């Protein structure tokens, strides 16, 4: 296994990038591009959100939180799914890079989860009169943050990387199975306890510019996540592969520059 | 059938015997449950209506915490003395004896909670008709907690600070059980009827029984590898 | 253009603490994460270089050591 990894493969298949040695330089090339795209999209999205989109008729200017709130909430859920996907691939195909991917994604997912909660609280105060209500979406988002923290704590607590990889993958999958159950149970609980005191479902018809701004910000979050994850993957790969020749060569090249 | 039951019964019997010999540990879990429940009136005040309203939630949260407290014992002893490795080396299916161990654990730590819960509910002046629903919800719900918790216990086996980590891992997963368990009693008391909650708990128990031992067995293999 | 003046923009119709609190904290977190990622890369490379020097000094004899120090 290790021997095979040492020599560069000549295969043209896309799967050659599953080898950490091949993925490392690719990640290094792609990450700045995604970071640039993220910056441009975020600037465009905020320009749309702040200067083009009209004031909301009901909520006034405070609705402009939506441009980060929705993007962060989408991203936090999507990142967990991607994490679970890579964990599954890792367990089935036993590819180390998949586990590295899921571990590199987790901190960014947790960050977006926190952003969604924070912006939600600040948005909630003027619109519902409270920073927090035990609404199904907010509560599930909070539990999602706990799932992220659990995953990160578990993978960091285990010193043997192979055990950390697989244990993390199992808890990511268990969490992914539970996320819909948690959402529906909380939703049910919420409708029984609170009735219709807070209704988040009545989405007022949105101006097209608002929707465009939101989508552009969501794409920016997407590009940002990819860029940060790729950078994190590179550090993880170096650490995991430190006994190989190609990392030695890479270190030679980096010596004195960093 | 009997070939599969043999090792199941053997592990179950062994673990129950071990639990009986170390019954002080089991009693500590039970005492913890009772003490936590009895703390609440001091915290929120002894107003009977309020106590009646929070009773199902208090009993359920206390049951959940007691389960959590005892979880680390599920595999720790066998891991320390090498029994776990021996078990993994046997040709018997891992899932089989994992279920046996979890069952023994529940009988030793979960069942006593189910038995004493009605008595504690009376301290909160819960209507007598609701006691049956409470017992039933706990009897269906605490095995789910034990099954889910076993996955967490296997994943954190032998880690430093494993106890806190275990709590962080499994508590979010316990939330649906808590909602339906405490909700069953509330629903009965409000006149809606607890059938829907209890059916969901039962379905949840079957689903967890089918899936959690698989994850637990995989986690044990990783931990011992 | 939505705003009559810059001060109106910063005021956000009276919701300034909520809107700017959201954007500010998000910006802080994003910048913080980027800094952490850069640091992590630098720390990893430095640590690996140190490790290699240490192991070369321990086992590999003088020549390998000098080669790396050079």
Automatic annotation (TrEMBL), chain B:
<feature type="transmembrane region" description="Helical">
    <location>
        <begin position="53"/>
        <end position="75"/>
    </location>
</feature>
<feature type="transmembrane region" description="Helical">
    <location>
        <begin position="95"/>
        <end position="124"/>
    </location>
</feature>
<feature type="transmembrane region" description="Helical">
    <location>
        <begin position="198"/>
        <end position="224"/>
    </location>
</feature>
<feature type="transmembrane region" description="Helical">
    <location>
        <begin position="131"/>
        <end position="159"/>
    </location>
</feature>
<dbReference type="Pfam" id="PF03379">
    <property type="entry name" value="CcmB"/>
</dbReference>
<keyword id="KW-1133">Transmembrane helix</keyword>
<comment type="function">
    <text>Required for the export of heme to the periplasm for the biogenesis of c-type cytochromes.</text>
</comment>
<keyword id="KW-0472">Membrane</keyword>
<keyword id="KW-0997">Cell inner membrane</keyword>
<keyword id="KW-0813">Transport</keyword>
<dbReference type="InterPro" id="IPR026031">
    <property type="entry name" value="Cyt_c_CcmB_bac"/>
</dbReference>
<keyword id="KW-0201">Cytochrome c-type biogenesis</keyword>
<dbReference type="InterPro" id="IPR003544">
    <property type="entry name" value="Cyt_c_biogenesis_CcmB"/>
</dbReference>
<protein>
    <recommendedName>
        <fullName>Heme exporter protein B</fullName>
    </recommendedName>
</protein>
<keyword id="KW-0812">Transmembrane</keyword>
<keyword id="KW-1003">Cell membrane</keyword>
<feature type="transmembrane region" description="Helical">
    <location>
        <begin position="26"/>
        <end position="46"/>
    </location>
</feature>
<comment type="similarity">
    <text>Belongs to the CcmB/CycW/HelB family.</text>
</comment>
<feature type="transmembrane region" description="Helical">
    <location>
        <begin position="165"/>
        <end position="189"/>
    </location>
</feature>
From TrEMBL, chain C:
<keyword id="KW-0997">Cell inner membrane</keyword>
<dbReference type="Pfam" id="PF04995">
    <property type="entry name" value="CcmD"/>
</dbReference>
<feature type="transmembrane region" description="Helical">
    <location>
        <begin position="20"/>
        <end position="38"/>
    </location>
</feature>
<dbReference type="InterPro" id="IPR052075">
    <property type="entry name" value="Heme_exporter_D"/>
</dbReference>
<comment type="function">
    <text>Required for the export of heme to the periplasm for the biogenesis of c-type cytochromes.</text>
</comment>
<keyword id="KW-1133">Transmembrane helix</keyword>
<keyword id="KW-0813">Transport</keyword>
<keyword id="KW-0812">Transmembrane</keyword>
<keyword id="KW-0201">Cytochrome c-type biogenesis</keyword>
<protein>
    <recommendedName>
        <fullName>Heme exporter protein D</fullName>
    </recommendedName>
</protein>
<keyword id="KW-1003">Cell membrane</keyword>
<comment type="similarity">
    <text>Belongs to the CcmD/CycX/HelD family.</text>
</comment>
<dbReference type="InterPro" id="IPR007078">
    <property type="entry name" value="Haem_export_protD_CcmD"/>
</dbReference>
<keyword id="KW-0472">Membrane</keyword>
